[in-house]
Amino acid sequence: MAFEAAQPPELGTMAGPVAPDGAAASVPGAVGAAGVGTRRKAGKMATMTKRLRVGDEEVKRLEEEGRKAIKLADKPQVADQYRSYKNKVVLQPGTLESSNVQKLIDTLLEWLNEVLAERRILLRDFFEDFCDGQILTELLEELTGSNESRESALALSEGDQRVKLSRVIEYVNRQLHIFDDEAKWSVDALYYKDPLATLHLLVALSRLFEAPIDLPRNVRIRALRMEERDDKVIHEEVVEEITGSEDSFGNHIPDKDVFDRLFEQAPDKLQAVENSLLTFANKHLAKISVEVVDVGTQFHDGVNLIHLMCLLERYCLPFCSYHVRAKNLDQKLRNVTVALQLMTDSGVTLPPIKPDEIVHKDLKSTLRVLYGVYSKFKFYR
Questions:
Q1: Rounded-to-integer distance, Cα 61 and Cα 40, Å
Q2: Which of 12-21, 178-187, 227-236 has the lowest mean pLDDT?
Q3: CB 373 within 8 Å of CB 308
Q4: CA pair distance 116, 113, nearest whole angstrom
Q5: How many separate helices (H) and strands (E) can be counted in the chain?
Q6: 80 Cβ partners below 8 Å, 6+ apart?
Q7: Collapsing DSSP states into helix, strand and coil, what is residue 24?
Q8: Which residues contact 107 (CB under 8 A, 6 or more apart)?
Q9: Which pLDDT score, from 0 to 100, does residue 246 have?
Q10: Out of 36, 123, 258, 373, which residue is the most buried by the measure of CB atoms under 10 Å away?
Q11: Contact call for residues 369 and 344 (beta carbons, < 8 A)
Q12: For 315-339, how does the pLDDT look when each residue is reduced to its tens digit (9 = 90+)?
């Protein structure tokens, strides 16, 4: 019997076991080409669906930004650099180019560059250069010879720059003996490069440190002050006085008074005048068991001046209105300011006196104040 060799079936024609009813049975572990293709198509569809979803979100975002832009275009706009600055100021066109203003800017720049020359700093535009407090710190160190205003780290972020500028401004106001709400500059104003605030600050510093420069007088700047109310911008035109008719140090030069002549020509009679004013003050302060023995030192914190006015005018000032125990410079300045205001309200005639003169125990200024009170109330019992 002859046997024929069995030929292996072709791969394409290999059949699996025959299932009942002639249906082909599946082979475990075997995957057909059709299954692989189905999965690939499903993956592509999922990717395309995801891309379409992202695309729809992008379209919606752009449409929303477009609607916001259209709404924004319908409102009066404020310059971006002033958007979060409450007292927004915009100069009239050509203001800084006027001869008087330009002379003031050039004079200040020349002085500042001379002061900062040792530190190899050259200023070209102080509206830009002072906005972060760094150059201002260098300037104060050079002028005062102290590093009290210095911040060790270089401020890079907006928050750090604001903190640095805040501390420098606080130091400046302390040197000028003024309160924050009295200053014509602020952290926001300098940070947002408000030209009026910057000029006010630099003029004040030049006078404080007696800069050897001649500032032009009667410099006034026209500006537009803007304030946002109920989604509207309210415009107000203002004329800001940067320098007045005073001298370069901001002082009016009065004629010499009786106390100038006493100090210069008759110091032997000065003690008699001081004793008379001291007697007058103690006569009234004794009602609250207070006795003053030194005019120069016991009125410098303003407390006894306030008490004296209250006794003479017969009223009681609430303790919250002043510092009964003034411990620092700011509290003493506040007290003396309150006392001088009480005198003015009572009709006391006072010569031009700054509160810091009393606080710094200037005997001549203190005697002038007491003499003004004495002249008003000398017949009061």
A1: 32
A2: 12-21
A3: yes
A4: 5
A5: 14, 3
A6: none
A7: strand
A8: 213, 214, 215, 216
A9: 62
A10: 373
A11: no
A12: 888 888 888 888 888 899 999 999 9
Length in residues, the chain: 381
| DSSP line for 305-365 | HHHHHHHHHT----GGGS-TT--SHHHHHHHHHHHHHHHHHTT----S--HHHHHTT-HHH
Q: 151 and 167 in contact (C-beta within 8 Å)?
A: yes
Residue 25: other Cβ atoms inside 10 A: 11
CA 197 to chain centre: 10
Determine the 3-state secondary structure of 31 from DSSP: coil
DSSP string, 226-280: EEEETTEEEEEEEEEEEE-SS-TTS---PPP-HHHHHHHH-HHHHHHHHHHHHHH
pTM to 2 decimal places: 0.45
- Both tokens of 154, joined, read 């270089």
Task: For residue 220, give the 3-state DSSP assignment.
Answer: strand
Q: How far apart are CA 241 and CA 52, in angstroms?
A: 62
At position 318, the amino acid (one-letter code) is P
C-beta separation of 171 from 151 below 8 A: no
Per-residue pLDDT for 27 more than 50?
no
